[in-house]
Amino acid sequence: MALWARQGSRWCGLLKAARAAEFPRSLRDRSSTAQACRGFAPLALPPSRNDVLLWRRQGYRHVSVGSCSPPDSAKDGSFSSESNLPSPVEQEQAKAETLPDLNAKILYEDWDDIPPSSALEEISEEEAVQIIAEPLLPLQSSTLRDYVDHSETLAKLVHLGVDLSQVEKRQKAGQLLLTLDFEKDIRKILLFLKDVGIEDNQLGPFLTKNPYILAEDLEALETRVAYLKSKKFGKAEIAQMVSRAPYLLLFSVERLDNRLGFFKNELGLSVKKTKDLVIRLPRLLTGKLEPVKENLQVCQIELGFQPNEIQQIMFRTPKILTASKKRLKQTFDYLHNIMGIPHHMLTRFPQVFNSKLLRIKERHMFLMFLGRAQYDPAQPSYISLDQLVSLPDEVFCTEIAKASMQDFEKFLKTL
Amino acid sequence: MAVPGGLFAVYKPAGVAWGRVRGAVETALLRELNAAPGRPPRQHVRFLPAPDGTTGLVAARVPVLADHPLVRGPRFRRLKIGAGHRLDTKASGVFVLGIGHGNKLLTHLYNCHLTKVYTVGGLFGKATDDFSDTGNLVEKTTFDHITREKLERIVAVIQGTNHKALLMYSNIDMKTQEAYELAVKGLIRPMGKSPPIITAIRCLQFALPEFQLEIHCLHETQQYLRKIVHEIGLELKSSAVCTQVRRIRDGVFTLDDALLRTQWNLQSIRNAIWDCQLKVKTELEKTLGHQDKSLLPKMAAEMAHAADG
């Protein structure tokens, strides 16, 4: 506070009057001082090179300093309230003299050395540019918006395409970005990511998803890439994996190795196939392993697939491994128990598990209504499961259901 | 881009909670509203080094970075979407939603106590603990003795008893001119809280063991309608479960006004609000007009406001 008072604009009398009004209670209770100060303030308002006024301001400075150290000012207040001084100016002076505060003395000397500046004094252009007439930066804030105009690092990140509004929601990510320096810390990581093979326009989205990589040690990152290379992943494949699963490079080599081993063992795939699997869905490596285990159990025990069928399904649509098991069960229940599709058909078209249950239901009911729900390849007018779920509504209506879009919409409103 | 304001109806599919439906509409609207270009960023004056390399500074206006879309984040984060009379998870049909000023209209519409129309499917021969076909089976019965005439007789009895309740809860002396005038306009219905009342019920289809009813009612819940089906089964010395509850009209909103899942986008919702505006206005004036004259100007202003927004 004292510091602020020293640095603050020197000619703004009004501000000081406001400060005077904030005197500690002991001072205000005696009231005469506070009132005197308030009455005094407007006098100091028009800034001029008047010596008297300057001297008055000196007196004032001490008041503001005094107000920051309550015991002193309390003493001071009791003193001034008892003496019945004729002019407020003299009163201030008296107070200034009686202040026993060491700070105030230093300030007093400072004040004597530096020639006082005034609003009317001409200053050079260089100095004028230095003056920032904006409010001070908040010391703490819940958003990076307050800092982005003052931080070159943040400005450069925004121009790179990093969505700060997303990043600031992440735990500690905002603080991290504020402590980093673009030239010193960020540039090397960006160059490294470019070396790995991430496209220029992908850097922004990548850092939005994973800002924490900026605090990571460069050598550690290089070791992890080297590990992936040693596992015979090609350069383009590594680039694809890293850009699709931004957290991949935050995993230590041992953890990556463990996880690759996990998928190889759980699914019983060959090395080449495991590699193929994680290249297609690299988020398997960075996600949790518990849901994957659960999904495999659900498929085997509750849905009754054979191990080789599971292997086939998971290799073709690895997304099922990360799907919600509740949804998986509901979809299977509808497909198998209501539509009557056997396991081997589901193994042939595992992509039906990725589509919405509501969509399958609507289309199946419409086909039932039209009498076209025929999913057995051995019979004529066979409709494959892939056609059932993957086509857009218009194509489905005309090609598969052989009905108009209006009919389909009307039918949907009867469900 | 302005947020639309007003009332519209969507078609709620069965098996989805109404909150999810409202959430889906909100997400779809937010996506489109935020994709539209927003306000241009503010400008502030900065002194930049001269571009030609000479010493000295040049004043220039540059956009404030704090207003950059990547810093500011999406313009709309949530919309106020209110729901009319709810539909439970198993029920489907017309579901009224209100955005912005439509929320006030929803309150007025609630105060009108309009009737709703449902089609209710039933299946004889079974009884379950929650009256729907997916509940736990409680008993199995025979239903060969049921004929369409027997069913219609029961239906007529239900309508008769409910009519008496309707007159009782409408709080109007039947021997007055006022009652006559209201009856001419078709406005005799309870204007406060009342137990569920069926104003009309008829049998649409009868093919053993299935049947379908059309029920006009007010102050109902979907579970009450399922219970009605169950009781019809008991009255016919059999039992019945409810296979489907589907609302085909909610007050002034009919099945044709309802937007399907694929139509939940800004343009369709704007059009739907526009189309329904007049219907809602006339209905509000008709019902609330004779009650409280002082309410009307206020409501007209709200309607006009909703039309602008």
Automatic annotation (TrEMBL), chain A:
Where does the protein principally reside?
Answer: mitochondrion
Q: Which InterPro entries match?
A: MTERF, MTERF_sf
Q: Does the keyword Transcription regulation apply?
A: yes
Where does the record say this protein resides?
Mitochondrion
What Pfam families has UniProt attached to this entry? mTERF
Question: Single GO cellular component annotation?
Answer: mitochondrion
**Keywords for the protein's UniProt record, in alphabetical order:** Mitochondrion, Transcription, Transcription regulation, Transit peptide
Q: Name one GO biological process term.
A: regulation of DNA-templated transcription
Instruction: Return the annotated region ranges for Disordered.
Output: 66-93
Database matches in PANTHER family: CGI-12 PROTEIN-RELATED, TRANSCRIPTION TERMINATION FACTOR 3, MITOCHONDRIAL
The similarity annotation says: Belongs to the mTERF family.
**Protein name listed in UniProt:** Transcription termination factor 3, mitochondrial
Which species is this record about? Grus japonensis (Japanese crane)
UniProtKB/TrEMBL annotation, chain B:
Q: Which InterPro entries match?
A: PsdUridine_synth_cat_dom_sf, PsdUridine_synth_N, Trub2
Domain Pseudouridine synthase II N-terminal, by residue range, is: 78-221
- Source superkingdom: Eukaryota
Gene3D superfamilies according to UniProt: Pseudouridine synthase
Q: Which family is this protein grouped under?
A: Belongs to the pseudouridine synthase TruB family.
Q: What is this protein called?
A: Mitochondrial mRNA pseudouridine synthase TRUB2
Upper taxonomic classification of the species? Eukaryota, Metazoa, Chordata, Craniata, Vertebrata
